[in-house]
């Protein structure tokens, strides 16, 4: 609800896709640097305490934003700062959460467990935008943020109550000896920090999986960074339209996750991940071509159906290929690459829309004459063009993935090459 309300507040203040995209960028940027150390921390520290810390930091950030808003001092740069802080600690929290799953369920249920996580994620997307869309015109940002603070109390209390298992043992780090036979602490730390990326790079299939998923999420986030401003621009700032789309995204995600949780998936997780890439690409292409809820709503539902499938399959592949005591560092290395490409995509999406594609589509030139019959020439047409290009790229990445033998070998754990 807070994210939705802050999006509306920032759009009303700036009317800029770049401003909204920068909120996402500043959330992603610290994740890149935190990932260098988060994996070591997650493999060494108590994961339950790390999850509580992440919620506590997010609650404090929400409280500060609320105080600034009520005092009339809230500015867009405050959102950038809060996004950076929450992004860094949220990265640690997410790694602690994801690495705990393998200690709670058997490998046969990795896909099912991750799809249940999708139910939680998309379930909140059903109610939150719908409620926030109705409440925002009535109580505004100052009324929605206190509701968010109350939910943090429930989350932290739940974590305190439950038991989170810890890995039984840790990997032995080979110690480097200096010239005088003493351990080089710098080398030990360097090996710890780079362990995850070295583990992935020594395994051909994992390396290919990382590269393919990085390309997919780059394309996804390039379009995703401007989807909300595109909807607001093409619906005349209709917050109810945006909330309806986000709520239906939640319904689609929950529907896909429930089916996957009941089914449990198949052993050929790679094929289902790639099918999810392609399905999402097709649905998002149709969404970008639409200009009203008649097209947006069914396209969004179909798009969201794919993400529990592709996300659960992808995560299960990493879980199955990595021993629990190494997952903090390996998952952090995977996250480091994905967060980096997502940050780059998010950073360029706003300026590319605002300064290049939007002016080009609203001017009389060859470029607009080619695409105007498809996307129109009004505000939001340039963003829609970028969105569709990104969606087509998502489809092509999934199609090419079927031709890579390294991915076809992924369902069997491989040794270093």
CATH architecture: Up-down Bundle
Give Rg in angstroms: 22 Å
The unreliable regions are 170-182
> What proportion of the residues is helical, as a percent range?
over 70%
What name does CATH use for the topology?
Growth Hormone, Chain: A
Question: How does the major sheet shape up?
Answer: none
Number of DSSP-assigned strands: 0
**Terminal-residue CA separation:** 47 Å
Query: How many helices in DSSP terms?
Result: 15
Keywords:
single chain; mainly alpha; Growth Hormone, Chain: A; 15 helices; 0% strand
Strand and helix map with partners:
Blueprint: H1 2-14, H2 17-44, H3 47-70, H4 76-101, H5 110-161, H6 185-201, H7 204-224, H8 227-234, H9 239-263, H10 269-289, H11 293-321, H12 327-361, H13 366-375, H14 381-401, H15 405-408
Helix pairs in contact: 1-5, 2-4, 2-6, 2-12, 3-4, 3-5, 5-9, 5-11, 6-12, 7-12, 7-14, 8-14, 9-11, 10-11, 10-14, 12-14
Task: Describe the fold and architecture.
- With 417 residues, the protein is mainly alpha-helical.
- It has a single domain (2-165, 188-408), classed as Growth Hormone, Chain: A, CATH 1.20.1250.
- Helix content is 80%, strand content 0%.
- The protein has 15 helices and no strands.
- The protein has helices at 2-14, 17-44, 47-70, 76-101, 110-161, 185-201, 204-224, 227-234, 239-263, 269-289, 293-321, 327-361, 366-375, 381-401, 405-408.
- Helix 12 crosses helix 14 (381-401).
- The N and C termini lie far apart (47 Å).
- Residues 170-182 have low confidence and may be disordered.
